[in-house]
Amino acid sequence: MMLQLRGVSFEYEPNQPVLQNVSLDVQEGDILWIQGANGSGKTTLFRLIAQLLMPKEGEVLYHSQPIIGPKRKEWLADLVYLQANPYLFDYLTGKENVRFFRHLFAMPEDQFCPYFAQTAERFRLNDALDILVQDYSLGMRYKLFWACMFGREARVFLLDEPFAPLDEASLNVAIEMVRTRAENGAAVLFTSHVRDVSTQIATRTMLLENGRLAQQPI
Ligand SMILES: Nc1ncnc2c1ncn2[C@@H]1O[C@H](COP(=O)(O)OP(=O)(O)OP(=O)(O)O)[C@@H](O)[C@H]1O
Predict the structure, then answer these.
(1) Is the ipTM of this complex over 0.90?
(2) Correct CATH for 3-216 of 3.40.50.300, 3.40.50.720, 3.40.50.1010, 3.40.50.10330
(3) In this structure, how many other beta carbons lie within 10 angstroms of the beta carbon of residue 130?
(4) Span 177-186, mean pLDDT?
(5) What is the model's pLDDT at position 144?
(6) CA of 42 to the centre of ligand 1 (A)
(7) Which residues line ligand 1 (CB under 6 A)?
(8) Percent of the chain at pLDDT above 70?
(9) Ligand 1 atom at minimal distance to the Cα of residue 36
(10) Phi and psi for 163 in degrees, rounded to 5?
């Protein structure tokens, strides 16, 4: 099993559990849609997997090893976390932001750039790369962030509301990118309130409700 959650519980405030005894098995090629109402804990679940939060109980395993400890670096190198709010520098151009991300992830130019260039081309971002990000529309910001994140050769993708800001042409590109990565052996976990795209792309669905995660028919 690639990624496992074993009995994970979490609370921000004492005695107000957000996740209760959550277990999950994720395999190579999975495209798993985590459904749940606003505030049900989907982002919290992703933050626990991305090590931004620590479980109160239980553990997260990557290839059967805890993601904290000796496997930590390998885990973070293999993980892409596309957060719902893109973190970009408004006062830098698109290209300068891209350079920042490449350095942040210590990606050699020859590995990162072909992936990035392919995505930027398909998202029709090339003409915008020399202008300041503060002049981007919401969709353009999102596509730049997406192209940077998908510039990495990761094994696990956590995508928090990845489809909402995209127009139809960009959605088709995004869907194909997700599918290609999964076909190449990556695991994808995503949250979304956009039902039609999610139904199209998901290989499996789970529902987070009252702190518990349960299998859900698609
Ligand atoms: N930093 C925090 N401190 C305290 N409580 C928090 C914090 N972040 C989130 N919460 C609470 O935890 C619960 C789960 O929030 P979370 O953001 O994980 O939900 P979500 O399912 O991602 O929601 P949405 O669909 O609106 O994005 C909510 O009740 C929220 O108010």
Answers:
(1) yes
(2) 3.40.50.300
(3) 10
(4) 95
(5) 95
(6) 8
(7) 12, 18, 36, 38-44
(8) 100
(9) 21
(10) -100, -25
